[in-house]
Amino acid sequence: MHSQGICGGFEAWVESEDEQERLNEYQVLHIPADTEHPARSQCYLETIDKPYAICVKKSSCLSYKGDWSCDISIDGVCLVDIGVWCEAETEYRVEDVINSIDGKLHKSFLKFSPQLTTDKPEEITLTTEDTQSLATIVISLTPGTWVRAGSEPCEPTALQAKVADEKAKKFAHTTSLVNPQELTCSVADAYSFEPSSNGESFYQFTFNYRSRVKLKMMNIIEEEEVKSPRGADRQSEVNVGSSGMNVLAKRKLSPLEYADAIDLTDSPPKKRKKPKLKDLLAAEAVEVEDEEAEQVKKECDKGQSSSKLGEKMKLLGEENQALREALRKLQQGMMVEAAAVDLTLDVYDSD
DUF7918 domain: which residues (predicted)? Predict the structure, then answer.
């Protein structure tokens, strides 16, 4: 999310601690300042099942160029021993906190986890007031100056998973501390902060983190469209009239169904006539003539001499004349043969 208006110049996000991939944000909302709250941006954040880090970045367009106090609260608990953001640093990042385990200080990482619940009233530690800030990450930015104040013992955070009533809403999430590493040094640098104004926050970012299942239940994430199964384009439409008879039926056919519907009759296949010899010769004569004429035309385009073209035209005419003469004789022979057949039939008929 980016800060807006006169407070523009900040960007805040949550990312995975190892891959440093930003988490998905939904319904980003920018709210101007009022008498009770500073200008702020808020959104819904989709959780992941791995440690996360909180990041803030400032740009050169900020009117104030000094130090900043970057206070971070998770589930309503303010993280201590952090927040020092000096002028020379462009980005501020929190990925771990100090906590106490069996009286020893450890460095642990932040991770989203389902809310613990119980049906035993004596084990419930989550109060009604706690639920108001449950599953939230709030970043408050205040301009001022950090002053080094020596060193002091490390103070563990009060952030810890609380147990809710079994009747609480399902799919609630909180932040737990994972992968603890024991600290070898329990002393850290101490700083004091002097705000440049009356100490009120300059800008706030609020991340309302929820699981993907919960975001879908809240209609913040739309369900993915279910793809139609293969072959779903085969459709049927049926309109039924008042008499109950099927009035209209329409269905898309596949190519195989079209092939089956081509010939549904029992009619015998038609016999193809055998071409006559004279027809074949006539077609061949026309084809030869067309081919020769095309060849002559090509040679004319190439710029051959008129004498050679004349000779070829002469040869073409002689060949066509010979072919036509052969065709004429063939036709005469066929006519004589037909006449002979007719005479023979007359003899048979007279008997």
Answer: 19-222
